[in-house]
């Protein structure tokens, strides 16, 4: 029922320094299995009437500011601890609490005290002298002003009742494995996030009410769907569960349709909508099909292309039967030929290249910040295409980019950080490209260059504790040290509730703030907080961002948990 909270060692503005600062990891990677079970916090909201009915008088609500066991006294400016000689001193020593306007104190276990404040509930471990958890916002509480705390018998700390002016929150710690968690996440995707076979966004017409969900098109349906396809492909390879294959197969059909619907050989739409049934997005470039039944979104980005090469490859290797292999060879051939026939560009219906779809040697320096990233993309695409199709044209193009244009050497500067302008979306696209490039590349000299690039990028990313980055790094490099414990911690911290509740941390007294905003001019911290205390995000989001959400008006699909978890299982980097 406890959760260890580690400190982070770097910040977005100091990312390059972490090559030196993060020389050693808190994780021990000596084993390939994780602890079978862990405690997953979940919550439900209840009225006072429901509280009385459910607890039947067995839960006493503590509303005072003093404790008997730990001898603490809460004030409007922090906590005092009574010492044996009758004197008092501030509590805790050497640790700043997230907020210090104390409203309620309750002894939980001999080593744990629950601290109610005007801005959330804190669980503090007196033995380790650290904050175990901070619960605030509607992900956890109906109101941040805590007026009472109760512990449900027979096991203390297994269930905590939190009283607020707007009702009660019941926070329960459920024993489960990550495999158990995966089942719930797969169920969520299938129930509320499969739209015409694509893994889609889900808006909630009544904030927080999942029964009012409506699936909608997003700007990157191709990328998100391919990541979910890969997750289910890895799951199938590990478990041989029929539903994993079936789910991936539905996604594959949708991806093939994204190419077919445009009428341009090898050119995938970003997304599609059914006229009269789907909500018409206000953004983007939309085209109507000849039958007037559908619209497809153009201006396809490198994001989608990275997703397609990644997802098609994983499905091809782990799931596809002979018929599906033929279909994938066909679509990958058309996609790659479209790029090569158009001088390393994506050409839309207007005959012009899309905004982000270009990788040619004469164009790659147009955006110096992304030169190495674009070189990485193209080498990965060609290496993947050759693996799937065996077409010598792709091997020839690959070798020409290396020998004539030195694309492999450009990877040395793939990861470039400017303070306040770290592009986490590019990080995601980079790691999804490293994976097939290094899985399929056999040349020792090229692998050495690629691994240097991957290692440099991973060292910068390490403080974020991203399991997808850690597992891709380990799978591609074979490194024994890849922060396994930190990756598992993050997988455990990802909340069960993926509703995009408004989350606010900028008021916290325990969070060192970055003086610079992120590239979207949003506040960010110098550390990565526990993931269940952060705004809902995917791996292309900024984990240093501390405020966000949309008031519970949408729900994430959760594939960002499923992909790294099942990739880690497939490569035997973690257990259940």
Shape: elongated
Supply the number of structural domains: 2
Which CATH class of the largest domain is shown? Answer: Mainly Alpha
N- to C-terminal distance = 18 Å
Number of DSSP strand runs: 21
Strand order of the largest sheet: 1-11-10-9
Question: Tell me about the biggest sheet?
Answer: 4 strands, antiparallel
Portion of residues in helices?
Answer: 25-40%
Q: Write down the Rg.
A: 25 Å
What is the CATH topology of the largest domain?
Answer: Glycosyltransferase
Structural class: alpha+beta
Query: In percent, how much strand structure appears in the residues?
Result: 15-25%
CATH architecture of the largest domain, please?
A: Alpha/alpha barrel
3D architecture notes:
With 576 residues, the chain is an alpha+beta fold. 36% of the residues lie in helices and 18% in strands. The chain has helices spanning 18-21, 48-55, 178-192, 221-239, 242-260, 302-318, 322-341, 371-389, 392-403, 407-410, 424-440, 444-461, 467-477, 484-493, 559-570, and strands spanning 38-46, 72-75, 78-82, 88-91, 102-109, 112-117, 120-125, 130-135, 148-151, 159-164, 167-176, 194-195, 198-199, 201-204, 213-216, 272-274, 286-288, 294-297, 345-347, 353-358, 554-555. The strands form seven sheets. The protein has a four-stranded antiparallel beta sheet with strand order 1-11-10-9. α8 runs antiparallel to α9 (392-403), α11 runs parallel beside α13 (467-477) and α13 (467-477) packs antiparallel against α14. The radius of gyration is 25 Å and the shape is elongated. It starts with 17 loop residues before the first helix and ends in a 6-residue tail after the last helix.
